[in-house]
UniProtKB/TrEMBL annotation:
This is Antibiotic biosynthesis monooxygenase. Residues 108-171 form the ABM domain. The lineage of its organism: Bacteria, Bacillati, Actinomycetota, Actinomycetes, Kitasatosporales. Residues 158-179 are annotated as: Disordered. It comes from the Bacteria. Residues 158-171 have a biased composition (Basic and acidic residues). The keyword Oxidoreductase applies. Keywords: Monooxygenase, Oxidoreductase. GO terms for molecular function: monooxygenase activity.
Length: 199
């Protein structure tokens, strides 16, 4: 397991998040090593990058936080900003697994309404003990919502899914007009790059 922490999505900035296919675990690691090597000297405005590998060995997810939005490359993965988060104030557990669900939506109003409905549907007395936090990210262009959830382990998430804990959320995912689930994944943190604040 990596010693580096999961990224703190509550830190102000623009998040650029993308996924790409990798043919097996060795290729996943090679993709990360190539990208991190190319960022040995990070460009201005890039504060941190985290790389996650999907548990099925097929996908690499990259999450980059930019402090200067004008420095973000104009072409590439979508830009996101944090809309809302669900996390206990005294939460100290270390995440062991990232679960994502990505949606195409019909504009900014739908982004907000869909996210608020999903949050409203969460259990009042707390969810599965393996669930640590949930962050709802909205793309800057108003076309996407990314649900980013931290869990203690992949096994805990699987247990919650088998117990039906996600059924109400999945009804919203599939039954909300103007919202289309595009993909999701289960990931482990592999590597991080943190820019020296003094540089």
């Amino acid at each position: 397991m990596p010693s580096a922490p999961f990224p703190d999505l509550t830190v102000p900035g623009t998040l650029v998040i993308g996924t790409r296919y990798a043919d097996g675990p060795e290729r996943q690691q090679a993709v990360v090593e190539a990208e991190s090597g190319a960022l040995a000297t990070p460009p201005a405005g890039l504060a941190a990058v985290s790389w996650f590998l999907s548990t099925d060995g097929e996908t690499v997810l990259t999450l980059a936080r930019w402090t200067d939005d004008t420095a973000v490359p104009p072409a590439g993965p979508p830009r996101y900003r944090l809309y809302r988060s669900l996390v206990e104030e005294q939460e100290t557990r270390v995440p062991g697994c990232l679960i994502t669900a990505a949606f195409d939506v019909d504009g900014p109003e739908r982004q907000r309404a869909f996210t608020d409905a999903v949050i409203e549907a969460q259990p009042r007395e707390g969810g599965h003990p393996g669930a640590i936090s949930a962050h709802f990210l909205h793309s800057v262009d108003g076309s996407r919502v990314l649900l980013y959830t931290e869990w203690t382990s992949a096994e805990a998430h699987q247990e919650a899914a088998e117990a039906g804990d996600h059924d109400k959320g999945h009804e919203l995912f599939s039954g909300t007009p103007g919202v289309r689930l595009t993909h999701g994944g289960r990931f482990h943190l592999y590597s991080t790059l943190q820019r020296d604040p003094a540089s």
